[in-house]
């Protein structure tokens, strides 16, 4: 299985701009630029797309891990923030709140740690990944 996205960039790094599109057409020709990446201009950027991918992948993996442990979550709410330090993406931080009937906080944390270590995006990022996971 392969998934693709396309980036088209025009101009210099700071003054130029680009468009991002996904194979699924979930978004097409979404604007990005230096200003959407490092400033406050509206548009997307690679870091928020990495954060979305990590939050989504982690949530799905956690659901599978919980299922294997005999639990079905009512809801898993994950946010992810990506940190850039000196031009390097160095940290991904997950904040997870979940409603899982019948699970203890200890078992939930164990399942969340498993999902954090084993979701495909966590493995691909190969960086410091921190997490704050709790039952809602």
Could you explain the architecture of this structure?
With 136 residues, this protein is an alpha+beta fold. It has two domains: 34 residues, no CATH class; 90 residues, 2-Layer Sandwich (GMP Synthetase, Chain A, domain 3), CATH 3.30.300. The chain contains four helices and six strands, in the order βββααββααβ. A three-stranded antiparallel sheet has the order 1-2-3. Strands 4-5-6 form a three-stranded mixed sheet, covered by helices on one side. Helix 2 crosses helix 3. The longest helix has 23 residues. It is elongated and about 55 Å long.
Which descriptors would you attach to this protein?
136 residues; alpha+beta; 6 strands; 35% helix
SSE diagram, text form:
Blueprint lengths: L4 E6 L6 E6 L7 E4 H5 L7 H23 L6 E11 L2 E12 L5 H14 L1 H6 L2 E8 L1
Helix pairs in contact: 2-3
Superfamily at the CATH H level of the largest domain? K homology (KH) domain
CATH architecture label name of the largest domain: 2-Layer Sandwich
Q: What's the shape?
A: elongated
Radius of gyration: 17 Å
The total tally of domains equals 2
């Amino acid at each position: 299985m392969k998934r693709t996205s396309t980036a088209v960039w025009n101009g210099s790094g700071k003054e130029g701009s680009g468009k991002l599109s996904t194979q699924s057409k979930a978004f097409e020709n979404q604007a990005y630029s230096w200003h959407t990446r490092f400033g406050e201009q509206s548009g997307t950027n690679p870091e928020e797309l990495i954060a979305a991918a990590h939050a989504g992948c982690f949530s799905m993996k956690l659901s599978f891990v919980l299922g294997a442990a005999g639990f079905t979550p009512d809801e898993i709410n994950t946010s992810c923030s990506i940190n850039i330090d000196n031009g390097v993406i160095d940290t991904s931080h997950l904040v997870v709140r979940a409603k899982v009937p019948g699970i203890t906080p200890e078992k939930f944390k164990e399942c969340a740690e498993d999902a954090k270590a084993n979701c495909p995006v966590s493995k691909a990022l190969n960086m410091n990944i921190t997490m704050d996971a709790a039952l809602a």
